[in-house]
Amino acid sequence: MEASQEKDVYVVYKNLGETPLECIQRFKKNKPEFGSSSVTYAGRLDPMAEGLLILLTNEKVNEKEKYLDLPKTYEFEVLWGFETDTLDILGKISNSKFQISKQEEVEDYLKKTVGKFEQKYPDYSSKPVQGKPLFQWAREDRLSEIDIPKHEVEVFEAKYISRRIISKEDLLNDIDFKIGKVRGDFRQKEILEKWKEVLSGTSEENFVIDKLELKVSSGFYVRQFVSDMAEDLGMLATTFHIKRTKIGDCEI
């Protein structure tokens, strides 16, 4: 945990499984002098994501918009062959099709994605629609009643890092471990049972995971990018892991 060069601005590491609010609670526990101070975060991370998170304290809380606009860099892993309702592994499997995109196709797609485009907000996101976050509409199965908004985002740099093979056993163990890190009600038991059911019911013994890196504008959703990429390539994929490695000039 370290302070930036600005007073009352802290760049911390949000752990896998934590919500941003839980990260703030840990920050206050480790720094009792902020116990009664106002603390907020700028740029949320999903429970299944880890990495850098900006915390603002005291008067800096009122300057949140300034820090939200900083560009961010993400390393993330794409698990091919599965589709979930949350677009990551902390979601119910909605479809599976064990076809794998060629590495060259993914690399070409990344090259073409650099630039500005409209991105849909994920169904499971905190974007408010008619006074209620999208994830509530999704949980109530009422998404058909609303228009899901889009917003302009930009990819500044895109990089293909590597491809690896993971066995069925290791995949389930990894998913179990990651979901086990999450506290609160995120349907963990139901979701994990579905992963076990689908994996035990397939004859596939090995699965493919690609690691990619994107430098993007504020408000970019990696989960949605992975889902859109898979759809454009005629495949299924979900986000296996996300790590935010850089915010503005601060990096791991």
How does this model look, in words?
This protein folds into two domains: 2-68, no CATH class; 72-251, Pseudouridine synthase (2-Layer Sandwich). Strands 1, 2, 3, 4, 5, 8, 11, 12, 13 and 14 form a ten-stranded mixed β-sheet that branches. Strands 6-7 form a two-stranded antiparallel sheet. A two-stranded antiparallel ribbon has the order 9-10. The chain is 28% helix and 35% strand. The termini are close together. It is of the alpha+beta class and 252 residues long. It is built from seven helices and 14 strands.
What keywords describe this structure?
single chain, 252 residues, alpha+beta, Pseudouridine synthase, ten-stranded mixed β-sheet, two-stranded antiparallel sheet, 7 helices, 14 strands, 35% strand, globular
Compact overview of the structure:
This protein has 252 residues and is of the alpha+beta class. It contains seven helices and 14 strands.
